[in-house]
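note to self — DONT lose this again. spent like an hour looking for the file last time. sequence + predicted structure for the chain T wanted, 99 res
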Amino acid sequence: MGRSGINGHRQGLAIEEHLGWSVKVVKHPPKPRGEWQPRGDLDDLSSVSFEWARIPPEPKRFRGPLPRRWVAERTIGWLSQSRRMSKDIESGCARRARP
């Protein structure tokens, strides 16, 4: 159920009624993970067997530099992590009182 309290298909109808926009659901086909490949002599069909072979994943591509906001958040996270470790507050050890 969406924020409007209307289920999926009816929500599309509500958008069409109130705003006049057309709504279409797009379903992408799943990416293939493997394929059947023949093994053996293709001329002699009695010796042919099929084997499932995984398709290697696509190589990762460079998606561009990170937005500056993410760089700042990452840096602050690193600094606060090492600050917490240096103070050793979370250890919870009892300290000896000095005489």
